Amino acid sequence: MSAARLAALRDAAGPVSRETFLRLEAFEAAFRRWAARINLAAPSTLPHLWERHVLDSAQLVRLAPDARRWLDLGSGGGFPGAVVALIMAEHDGAHVDLVESNRKKAAFLQTVLAELKAPAKVHARRIEDCSVLLPVPQIVTARALAPLERLLPLAEPWLAQGARGLFHKGRDYLREVEESGNVWQFDLVKHDAMTGDGVILEISSLLRRTPRR
Ligand SMILES: C[S@@+](CC[C@H](N)C(=O)[O-])C[C@H]1O[C@@H](n2cnc3c(N)ncnc32)[C@H](O)[C@@H]1O
Questions:
Q1: What is the ipTM of this complex?
Q2: Residues 96, 101, 105: CA angle, nearest 5 degrees
Q3: Which residue puts its alpha carbon closest to atom 13 of ligand 1?
Q4: pLDDT value at position 166?
Q5: Is the CB of 79 under 6 A from ligand 1?
Q6: Looking at domain 2-208, does it have CATH number 1.10.3720.10?
Q7: pLDDT for res 2
Q8: Which atom of ligand 1 is nearest to the CA of 154?
């Protein structure tokens, strides 16, 4: 079982050490303990936590294998930010900022990521209050946070300064891209997600077409 899980992790994320695998398994165990007391993820997804959340998050590392500075917006129970941070523990100088306004979820992330010595900082604040606080990373992530039309303004402070976005999206991503096209101009690469039937949208060179209202 363990060997199959490790193989699936490496399929998703690329080369990762056995220590990283053990850190992610420890995170999964802590997640299950805390999820019994606070709402960290939809209960229906818990039986498939490893595939639905851990591997779904880990696949981002394969798309940006050289990135060491990451920012995750609306991290919730840690997807994808905590998973990326636990993988980044393999790399000297790596750092992941996680922004989550829900205090209970942020407390979970702070506690568990500190215990597992992940190179991460959790910001228990609203994303809108973080633009001057957090430096421009190489990669901005957000999963299940908002449709592109509302997500791009949230990510603008970093994407407009050269960061690249890797955003999990569902099958109807084209409609979201079209709807955001009146206000935003950007370069887009679509990656098929390795879990489920969703996609990862890679967004760079973000520019506003129309002045901010
Ligand atoms: C649907 S959950 C998704 C969580 C996680 N990314 C995942 O995929 O499992 C969205 C999360 O974003 C947080 N959130 C929503 N708007 C936010 C904001 N403006 N600033 C910070 N966090 C926010 C919510 O508290 C919630 O935990």
A1: 0.99
A2: 75
A3: 74
A4: 98
A5: yes
A6: no
A7: 87
A8: 19
| Residue in 145, 150, 154, 195 to alter for ligand 1 test, most ligand atoms within 8 A of Cβ | 145
- How confident is the model at residue 213, as a pLDDT? 64
Q: Is the CB of 123 under 6 A from ligand 1?
A: no
pLDDT on residue 1: 58
Averaged over successive runs of 10 residues, the pLDDT of the chain (213 residues) comes to 91 96 98 96 91 96 98 98 98 97 98 98 98 96 97 98 97 94 96 88 94 68
